[in-house]
Write a structure and sequence with these properties.
The complex is a heterotrimer of chains A (631), B (102) and C (164). Chain B is mostly helical and 102 residues long. Chain B is built from three helices and no strands. The longest helix of chain B is centred in the last third of the chain and has 31 residues, at 59-89. Chain C has helices at 2-21, 25-45, 49-74, 86-109, 122-130, 134-154. Chain C starts with a helix and ends in a 10-residue tail after the last helix. The chains are: A mainly alpha (631), B mainly alpha (102), C mainly alpha (164). Chains A and C meet through α26 of A and α4 of C.
Chain lengths: 631, 102, 164
Amino acid sequence: MNSLMWLIPAFPAAGFVVLGTLGRRLSRRACAVVGTGSVALSMTAAAAVAWGYLSPALPRSPTTTALWQWVQTQGFSIGFALHLDSLSLLWVLVVTGVGFLIHLYSTSFMSAYEGYGRYFAYLNLFVASMLLLVLADGLLLLYLGWEGVGLCSFLLIGFWYKEPANSRAALKAFVVTRIGDTALIIGILLLYTRLGSGNIQELLSRASSRLAPGAPLAVAAAALLLAGALGKSAQIPLQTWLPDAMAGPTPVSALIHAATMVTAGVYLIARMNVLFALAPTVRFLVAIIGAATLILAGFSAAAQRDIKRVLAYSTISQIGYMFLALGVGAWPAAAFHFLTHACFKALLFLGAGVIILNLGEEHDIFRMGGLWRRMPLVFGTFLTAALSMAAVPPLTAGFYSKDWILYWVWNSGPYGPVLWLLALLGVVLTSLYTFRLVFIVFLGPERSRPSGRPGSLLAIPLVVLAVPAALAGFLETPRHLGDIRVFSRFIAQTAAVVEPPPSMPGMGVWLILASEAASLLGILLAYGVFRRRLRAGEAAESLPRGAYLRRFWLAGWGFDWLYEQTVVRPYRLLSRAVGAEPLNWLYGGIGGLAVAVHRLLSLIQDGRIRRYAAGVALGAALILALVLVLL
Amino acid sequence: MTTVLVQYGLLLAAALFLVGLAGVLFRRNLLFTLLSLEIMLNAAGLAFVVAASRWQQPDGQVMFLIILAVSAAEAAVGLALILGIHRESGTLDSDELRRLRG
Amino acid sequence: MNGIVWISGAVAVISTLAAVTRRNAVHALLYLIVGMLGVAVVLFAFGAAFAAVLQVVIWAGAILVLFLFVMMMLNPRTEKRAAVRLRDIIGPALLTAVLVAELMVVMTVAPPQPPAAAAVQPEQVGSSLYGRYAVVVELASVLLLVGVAGAFHLGRGREKDEGR
């Protein structure tokens, strides 16, 4: 089965090639078939490989399939090979599975717009790049996939390029992630030159054998890799691009900016967890960034009006959870949360897409309301996903994954309880903003009329995703609730899963109860505010109290303003200054100097021959004097 | 022959040269400029002859002859030009005749 | 002999000075002729009889007379006694003073040269002219021819032949 591994990225890549070259000449149906079909085939291949990997008859060890030699020069050779273990298999299954559902959804969603073939071409290229990223066995190949998804993100955010704001958003995404990418490539090259190999497994084994914990190389490399991950995964301080990236089509937001691309950073850190274990300070920084981001983004999400921006900030916040987990060494928990998050977040975005479409491109939640009656399917699936995200037990995947993270964080050393407290606050915020969204959009008086029910191509993905959004949690449950360890055993094939011993025995139950209470508290708060608004009869405007805070959170804690002042403005000034070509002054100055000297000298030529004779006499006098002096 | 030292002859030549130079520098009338030039040329010729007598060679006198010929030609042409200038602009003041300026 | 050289040298310098400073052009010319004659005496005293004769005949007798002719043609009026502004003469005066000073320095620094032992005979000059310097003589004659032609052309005037 492993010989089929290369097909997984190959199918979408072929789809891209076909659609890229012939897209304009193919009919819409043909484009849809090619685009969705390639991902479907990829998913099938992935399933086959997974079946081969997981079947008890065959040895379940990580395998590598070498494809060809990418670079071969003196002293420097890079292979093009794919590496499969449980971590990459998990990501492959999510990308192909969720990707296929989103492609299916897009065939109907995008039929209202132009550029159908172009859309599927880009989307296929994205899937191919993402698969390459997670299957890469070498860091440079991973970087190839990394750049590929960045490119596709740019192309797809700015898909409707005729609107200048969309292009600006695409550019902003690209530039901000570029900052991270630069750090990443420096880190990769650092590791390559110092440890002598680009192959990840080799690199990790050499690192653990040669470097002591806290070694400068490990710290530097881990820090650089972290910077790259921050850019791609939209964590502080590089998170400003994601809310604006919602300018792209909603399925794009679902696939790229919720389920897959933004998790590339999580994948990177999880994959290189050995390196991060060797740099404890950097790893702790990961946790701190994760905690800070999840809180900041949570507040921002609670203040947004645009439905997609709420979901964007919520993505940033949930990835903050994954980073927090990675930061305390809980990379299996992070991977589990990735799985559940992909399901419910994609579902939320797809549901939002249906609403937007049916309300005539309406994004403002304060113009929606009472949709539960008219769009019951959307309401049902959206509610399932919302409950999952808010981590309300017992039938929601989000509860179990988030709980695992919280448990791990609590037990993770001296700062554990502090971080746990922050994460708990995050739980309250999460359910607060999620249910604020649910109440305002679906309950209350109806403000806009939806134009119809969603078609089957839109509805099927919603339903299909609702299932794992509810049930996927049962792959891994805490000790007190069944102690299922399917996921841990699966992921342990990559590296051993070492859960920290409980710092306070018996706290387990209390922790679970605390997180339950927190999520319910959030829902209650959301409901309370909602009721107050209903009673006051206020339609769109926010409550006057705390308006300043609300505006601050709405603007994402002012990061955009900060960057505008400190980075963008000086850069623009600098480019304008350089654009005036200051070096030309040097050359122009030489010319100007020549002209000035000329003007000076031409004063001597006034046409008076007596003066000229006097000049000659002067010269003679000088030369004579010289001769006399020298002799 | 004289027992005057050669350098006094050269001194005389230099003095005459300076006088001629002063005339060129101080006088505005073009005729006087030309006249002063003749003085300078004469002084140079004198210097040549004096030097020749020091070295007992005829070359200095040959040079004197050449200077003479040159001076004659130059005076002729120069005076013709002065006639022309006088016809054109009516003045011989070199400070007035300034059209050839940079 | 020495005294004659001194006297005629002084006469030459004084009359040349006078020539340069006169306001009347004809007066200046006459003074200059005298100066030339003085120089001729000095030349003879240094043994260059041929040069002395040339000086008198050609310098004083041809060139300066030519000047005289032209002056009479131009009929220059006596220059008005314009106020001599210090600004006008300060530059040339300074220069001249500097040159005179340098001359003095040269005179004191240079070692004394012995006087001429014997006169250079005209025969020597003649054979040198037509021997070693024959080409120079030819060139000088060409120069004179050019001078004649040029003076003729330039002095002719425009009204008769335009552009000829």
